[in-house]
From TrEMBL, chain B:
Alphabetical GO biological process terms: autophagosome assembly; autophagy of mitochondrion; glycophagy; nucleophagy; protein transport
Gene: ATG3
Keywords, in A-Z order: Autophagy, Coiled coil, Cytoplasm, Protein transport, Transport, Ubl conjugation pathway
Protein name: Autophagy-related protein 3
Organism: Dissophora globulifera
One Gene Ontology CC term in the entry: cytosol
UniProt keyword annotation of Transport present: yes
Entry keyword Cell membrane: no
Chain segments annotated as coiled-coil in the UniProt record: 116-150
Family, similarity comment: Belongs to the ATG3 family.
Length: 336, 324
């Protein structure tokens, strides 16, 4: 069956809009060129419904917090310390327009294409092998109505389309495939990997299965790590924001595109790494095999999809109305 | 009105001396150093919590610049308080499991020992202060235990689909220009989930999420909890919606909308006026229950505080588990 991916759901923290407002007034002013931002995500989580024997899958959230913009006084690339513990990097581009008219008439297709081209270039040049977080690059269009404390925004999470599409077998819980000792070994190995590697290496990684002990390595170590391995032994892992039992999350799409392009791999086992943060529990992780019918060498950038739908389920912008929380006039009304 | 109040609160905070000596067992209050120690312990035990520095201009110099307040994000809140139901069965088991504890038997109402109106009416009366704190502490302990019990009664099973509400309003009316935007159909994009099975008696209305903050309140010398909520489409919740997630005994009385001390924003906050007295009672109760030689340590303060807070916001499921 065709492998289907669980799309991102954007999740902007309210303080992000405050920081955007400050940047707009103090630094960007009328400069509406594209700026870098930093998003983050956790692995997927299901929560139990109180009093019921069921759980609910939470959305795969890509979050923007108050540290999304680099600190203007900090010349260092302080990205890695700007995201919460147990989260993963998603670098993005933001275009903040000066007027609502600009926001409406903005050439969205061109900006989307620009982002897709960057992702494709990072894949073909090998930059994304060295820094896999580049696979998560996203685009954000904004307009901040500073008088009314209203923020219009639209995310795009570009994913390269595979042609022909990837297919897969059913996803299985790790406990059905691996022994408890293997799963525990993987958890320990990944924790060690996390403590030793820079944060941009954490979202995508390689796994080798041993009878008891597992091993984990960076994507850039592919050749040495899998030297002498049968192709069937290759496992790629990714921090999976999806919490669905049947579908992996969006970041896997560009990873599969890179695997095909870089290593000409048409069949690969995938580990959807899902953890309960801080609780040393990876039992909800999933495994499956993905394959694609053929690989034909190409240098042309594939087509891509990924505009986020709004609350009405349509392709269109969203609105965050913070007047009740930021407008001094409105605050008086809600005071109890 | 609100800004006058805020200036008053600000001035009062400024004039209050910083608590220097530990009095947490006698009063339930803690010093800024103890707040930091308890925060460090919370972050260590529950790593979804983290320290924040907040707005540089709003830093308090009696707190570490990088450890001004605590935050945990995207905490799920599956349903509204009014949807929470406790059966008679639960109540009976509750009493059994509590054995001979006389105070449990003396309270028959399920959330608070006494109606909050009664408590609120006596709020300024010093003589009743002790009794009120006792009642509130007992209510909190009961709620905490009830949740533990509920927890034990439940088992997990898979139900992967996200419940979606039908959007009821047009978000952005003047955005018609965007209607021409279309993306090619993509077979590899998973379509939004359609609710397959909805139990009419217990429909999950929406999965809200909360960002939860804990600040140090210098005037009351206790931690203070703040809530920022989002609906299932990630729109910020307004105060009336947030009150749906607050135990009805507290909504609009001890939970108010105020300016966050480290952010330029108004948030719902649980007023700390009786936190000290209630914490003292809960700490005594915890110490007695466990029958341990060693007393409750001050670095465990926030873990206990969070369990107390979960009786105020019972459906917001933040991590306060000490085991890990």
């Amino acid at each position: 069956m065709v492998l289907q991916f669980h799309p991102w759901a954007s999740a902007v923290e309210a303080p992000f809009w405050q920081v955007l407002t400050q940047r707009k007034m103090d630094i960007f002013k009328l400069d509406d060129s594209v700026k870098p931002v930093l998003g983050y995500y956790s692995t997927g989580q299901q929560v139990r419904v109180p009093g019921k024997d069921t759980t609910v899958a939470l959305p795969a959230r890509l979050c923007l917090g108050p540290a999304a913009f680099p600190d203007p006084e900090d010349s260092e690339l302080s990205g890695p310390t700007r995201i919460p513990a147990f989260t993963f990097l998603a670098p993005g581009l933001v275009k903040n327009t000066n007027t609502i008219e600009d926001f409406k008439s903005i050439d969205k297709t061109a900006l989307f294409k620009m982002t897709v081209d960057q992702i494709w270039d990072d894949i073909t040049s090998g930059r994304a092998v060295l820094d896999p977080s580049l696979l998560n690059k996203f685009l954000l269009l904004t307009f901040a109505d500073l008088k009314k404390f209203k923020f219009y925004y639209w995310f795009a999470f570009p994913a390269l389309q595979a042609d022909p599409a990837w297919t897969s077998d059913a996803m299985q819980e790790v406990s059905l495939v691996w022994t408890p000792a293997q799963t525990e070994s993987l958890r320990l190995q990944y924790d060690q990997y996390r403590s030793q590697q820079p944060v941009n290496q954490l979202g995508f990684f390689l796994v080798k299965e041993g009878r008891e002990a597992m091993s984990v390595a960076r994507l850039q170590d592919w050749n040495e790590f899998f030297a002498g391995c049968d192709p069937s032994e290759i496992i790629v892992g990714f921090a999976d924001p999806s919490s669905l039992d049947s579908h992996p999350g969006w970041p896997l799409r560009n990873l599969l595109a890179m695997i095909l392009q870089q290593w000409k791999i048409t069949k690969v086992r995938v580990l959807c790494y899902r953890e309960v943060p801080g609780k040393q529990d990876i039992s909800s992780s999933k495994l499956f095999a993905a394959q694609v019918a053929s690989y034909s060498p190409t240098t042309d950038c594939p087509k891509a999809v990924g505009w986020e739908k709004n609350a009405q389920g349509k392709l269109g912008p969203r609105l965050a109305d913070l007047a009740p929380l930021m407008d001094p006039a409105r605050l008086a009304d809600t005071a109890v | 009105m609100n800004s006058v109040q805020n200036i008053f609160f600000g001035l009062r905070e400024y004039l209050s001396p910083v608590l220097k000596n530990s009095k947490f067992k006698e009063t339930g209050c803690i010093t800024p150093e103890e707040f930091e120690a308890a925060g460090d312990f919370l972050v260590y035990k529950c790593p979804t919590w983290s320290w924040q520095g907040g707005e540089p201009s709003k830093r308090r110099d009696y707190l570490n610049p990088d450890k001004q307040f605590l935050i945990t994000r995207n905490v799920p809140c599956l349903r509204r308080v009014k949807q929470m139901e406790y059966t008679d069965e639960d109540a009976e088991m509750q009493i059994e499991s509590d054995g001979a504890d006389s105070w449990v038997m003396s309270h028959s109402s399920r959330v608070s020992g006494r109606p909050i109106e009664e408590l609120a009416g006596n709020m300024d009366d010093d003589e009743d202060e002790e009794a009120e704190a006792e009642a509130e502490a007992q209510a909190a302990i009961r709620a905490m235990e009830r949740m533990k019990l509920q927890d034990q009664l439940q088992s997990a099973a898979a139900e992967p689909e996200d419940q979606q509400d039908i959007p009821d309003m047009d978000d952005i009316p003047d955005m018609d220009d965007f209607d021409d935007m279309e993306e090619e159909a993509d077979p590899a994009t998973l379509a939004p989930a359609v609710p397959t099975e909805v139990d009419p008696g217990d429909k999950i209305l929406s999965v809200r999420t909360y960002d939860v903050f804990i600040t140090y309140d210098k005037y009351y010398q206790t931690p203070r909890m703040w809530l920022f909520g989002y609906d299932e489409h990630r729109r910020p919740l307004v105060s009336s919606q947030i009150f749906e997630d607050v135990s009805q005994d507290y909504a609009k009385k001890t939970v108010t909308i105020e300016t966050h001390p480290h952010l330029n924003m108004s948030l719902a906050s649980i007023h700390p006026c009786r936190h000290g007295a209630v914490m003292k009672k809960i700490i005594e109760k915890v110490a007695n229950d466990e029958g341990k030689e060693e007393p409750v340590r001050v670095d465990q303060y926030l873990i206990i505080f969070l369990k107390f807070m979960s009786s105020v916001v019972p459906t917001i499921d933040y991590d306060n588990t000490i085991s890990a």
